[in-house]
Amino acid sequence: MEVNPPPLRVTATAPPQQREKLADAAYAALKASILEGLLPPGSETTEQTVAEQLGMSRTPVHEAALRLQHEGMLLVLPRKGLRVLPLDPEDLRQTYEVLVALEGAAAALLAAQAEPSVLAAMERATAEMGAALAMGDRAAWAGADDRFHRALVEGCGNAKLARLAATATDQAQRARTLTAARRPEPIASGLEHAALLAALRAGDADGARAAAARHRARASAEILAVLRG
């Protein structure tokens, strides 16, 4: 089935020096549609359709699609078709193993720095998760949970670690969004976030590493059980 991504208005007649920016804009719009479930697994569209939605030529859309294919989200079909790939449970299991290691390392680094703005962002995201659950809005809960984890890795002070975690974090958010409505009430996540934040505020690097790993391992097992069931 063909699903159009939400429109993102950009200049259709951009000069050559803006070509890379157009490709980045197309990449961001397409990826957001996939991560938010607007382009669900198995859905198909065309580069021309996406280009028209975004108000640009097909070339930057093609470049964006190739990037997303490399990241395992899209398949570029003959004659410029695009198909959103399903989540593979085994591939996702391995992705979570990577995230357990990287987020644990990020938590240990952050505990040593205790950057107030990062901790505040994580606390805010956790509060937003609780508010979303209270309203029965699983999509909003999934978005807030994603913001918590991105704040952790992006705020740890190691830019290379954050870059390494980026694609895995995207895949985790895709899985979180697709399974949110089918999982048991995710109350444990907020409690586990609070435990991690307590270790971070205390400057307990080992405790923060362990709390981050326990949380990601528990949550990923729950997601994988839904996908395999």
Describe the structure.
There is one protein chain. The longest helix has 25 residues, at 89-113. The chain has helices spanning 19-35, 47-54, 58-70, 89-113, 116-134, 138-154, 159-179, 187-201, 205-228, and strands at residues 44-46, 74-77, 81-84. A hairpin with a 3-residue loop joins strand 2 (74-77) and strand 3. Mean pLDDT is 90; it is low at 5-14. With 229 residues, the protein is mainly alpha-helical. The chain is globular, with a radius of gyration of 19 Å. The protein has a 3-stranded antiparallel β-sheet. The protein is built from 9 helices and 3 strands. Helix 5 packs antiparallel against helix 8 (187-201). It folds into 2 domains: 16-84, Arc Repressor Mutant, subunit A, CATH 1.10.10.10; 89-228, GntR ligand-binding domain-like (Four Helix Bundle (Hemerythrin (Met), subunit A), Up-down Bundle).
Features:
229 residues; mainly alpha; Arc Repressor Mutant, subunit A; Four Helix Bundle (Hemerythrin (Met), subunit A); 2 domains; 3-stranded antiparallel beta sheet; 69% helix
